[in-house]
């Protein structure tokens, strides 16, 4: 049974599918589960957000607002949820955070890149599977 789940999200459709699958997975014992939604902001996105919103505090608040719908969806199912925002390379900061906080499971949505794209660009989900010490579930 997974009680403490880290769910990597970026607000995409792939992340939404990961949320849906996670909720199905924990349905029988939902009142015992906590899901932490983690969003990693890379340097370029961080700069763009600060320029767009005027300061880093407002940018952080806007990022959290982006995930309020997801938190509400999760909590409506009887599961506790929290949003965690980190800064840095997504694969690196999510891996570091997951390994430091003893999660029972980490869930991430897959973008579905083809083999060439994955070879050239790498894949956050592949890196999480490789380096996180907890079980990792990749949702397609």
From TrEMBL:
Residues 1-140 form the UspA domain. Pfam families: Usp (PF00582). CDD domains: USP-like. It comes from the Bacteria. It comes from Halobacillus litoralis. This is Universal stress protein. Belongs to the universal stress protein A family. Gene3D superfamilies: HUPs.
């Amino acid at each position: 049974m997974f009680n403490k789940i880290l769910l990597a999200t970026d607000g995409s459709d792939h992340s939404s599918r990961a949320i849906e699958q996670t909720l199905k997975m924990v349905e029988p014992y939902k009142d015992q589960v906590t899901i932490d939604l983690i969003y990693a902001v890379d340097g370029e996105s961080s700069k763009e957000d600060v320029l767009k919103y005027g300061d880093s505090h407002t940018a952080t608040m806007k990022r959290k607002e982006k995930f309020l719908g997801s938190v509400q969806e999760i909590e409506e199912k009887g599961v506790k949820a929290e949003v965690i925002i980190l800064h840095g390379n997504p694969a690196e900061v999510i891996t570091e955070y997951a390994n430091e906080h003893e999660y029972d499971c980490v869930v991430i949505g897959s973008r579905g890149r083809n083999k060439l794209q994955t070879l050239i660009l790498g894949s956050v989900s592949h890196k999480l599977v490789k380096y996180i010490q907890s079980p990792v579930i990749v949702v397609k």
